[in-house]
Amino acid sequence: MNEKEFLEELKNHWIKNDIPNISFVNAKFLRDLIKIKKVKNMLEIGTANWFSTINFALELKALWYWKITTIEFSPNSHWEALKNFKNAWVDDIINPLLWNALDIIPKLKEKYDFVFIDGMKKRSKDFLELVWNKTRKWGIIIIDDVIKFKHKMLSLYDYVDENKIEHNIIPIDEDDGIMMIIK
């Protein structure tokens, strides 16, 4: 099975099981950013059902760059993700952590070129605060679902405004988009 077929199979799985995930359009946009930025070390908050992680890892692997650390709170999602990372042949560049992101991020020692925040929406501000000093200068921080779930993320919007953090809201899909911050 090739990459496209594998990703289609994953997509069908999350549609059939009503699992929220990034779209192919969003995945392509983020993969292009990874490629342009030549990302070497990435952090993802919210592995969920692994579709985004696998997309990111495939891009990193294609570029011969390093790794992605992904944090997931749900044991069921985590164990399913591990199986699928292996099936996608990207398990060697993924550091999967089964943990509460709010507790583990302060313990992470690395700096990241690219951070993708797609965890619990009402905690997006907290995640941003925690990853800020873990993100390299000129690193990219992407926060997903900022249009559709803005009502759950009001503290994030207040935080970036109060702290004068430059950001762009980019509509990616028909009904949603991302917040992009270049540190």
Main features:
single chain; alpha/beta; Rossmann fold; seven-stranded mixed β-sheet; 7 strands
- Low-pLDDT sequence parts: none
Question: How many structural domains does the protein architecture include?
Answer: 1
| Helix-strand pattern | HHEHEHEHEHEHEE
Number of strands: 7
Q: On the 0-100 scale, what is the average pLDDT?
A: 91
How much of the polypeptide forms β-strand, as a percent range?
15-25%
What order do the strands of the largest sheet run in, or round the barrel if closed?
3-2-1-4-5-7-6
- State Rg: 15 Å
Give the name of the CATH superfamily: Vaccinia Virus protein VP39
User: Number of helical runs?
Assistant: 7
Which shape, going by the Cα principal axes? Answer: globular
What is the fold named in CATH at topology level?
Rossmann fold
The helical percent reads 40-55%
Oligomer: single chain
Alpha-carbon distance between the two ends? 39 Å
Helix/strand class = alpha/beta
Named at the architecture level, the CATH assignment is 3-Layer(aba) Sandwich
Largest sheet: 7 strands, mixed
CATH level-1 class: Alpha Beta
